[in-house]
Amino acid sequence: MENNLENNLENLTDKVQDAKETVKEKLSDDIKHSGDKVSEAILDAKEKLPNITPTPPGIKAQSSAHDLKSRLEWGEPALTIFDVRDRETFNNGHIMGAMPMPMEQLSQGIEPSPSLALNRDIYVYSDSDEQTSQAASQLRNSGFVNVSELQGGLAAWKAIGGPTEGVVESMTPPSAGDYNVVSRISEESAKSAKQ
């Protein structure tokens, strides 16, 4: 009887081991193919749902100060702002985060680098829209594809309350409107009333 029990136990152990192997094989096979099923399910769900996820604005050949500010408010780091005015003017005041790239330097050509790829989004501005257009053309001729001309330059940027930095900018005392929308509206109302 003991031999019989041992044989039965051995048979059961073998069957359990076989079942484990079968389950492992089945799970392994399911895992290999589940990626396809999951991807299909995700695509299926996306097709059925309305597009409710907002997307940041894309780059245009010509952008307003509002376009750039909106893009920055998305927190999108993959862009560069070039100020093509002379270095002294740049030092006096520029859009916060802009890089100096004087027209003289730009006319010598600019080489792509790991931090400045040919497909990087570049916003460029100068003292006039004409100079901005020339700078953008030079960048495009150098192979950069996503170049946008910031219309109105620094004046337009400051007009919408965009952040600036520089020697002169740091000496200009901020008004209450620089920190508070309600104060800014009051200041604008007061200006309009005087006119």
Report on this model:
The protein has 195 residues and is of the alpha/beta class. Strands 1-6-5-2-4 form a 5-stranded parallel beta sheet. Strands 3-7 form a two-stranded antiparallel ribbon. The longest helix has 47 residues. The protein is elongated.
Percent of residues in beta strands = 5-15%
Look at the helices and sheets and give the structural class: alpha/beta
Helix content: 40-55%
State mean pLDDT (0 to 100 scale).
80
Strand order of the largest sheet: 1-6-5-2-4
Summed up:
This protein is an alpha/beta fold and about 200 residues long.
Any descriptors?
195 residues, alpha/beta, five-stranded parallel sheet, two-stranded antiparallel sheet, 8 helices, 7 strands, 54% helix, elongated
Record the SSE blueprint.
Layout: H1 2-48, E1 62-63, H2 65-73, E2 79-83, H3 87-92, E3 94-95, E4 99-100, H4 103-107, E5 121-125, H5 129-141, E6 147-150, H6 153-159, E7 164-165, H7 167-171, H8 181-194
Parallel strand pairs: 1-6, 2-4, 2-5, 5-6
Antiparallel strand pairs: 3-7
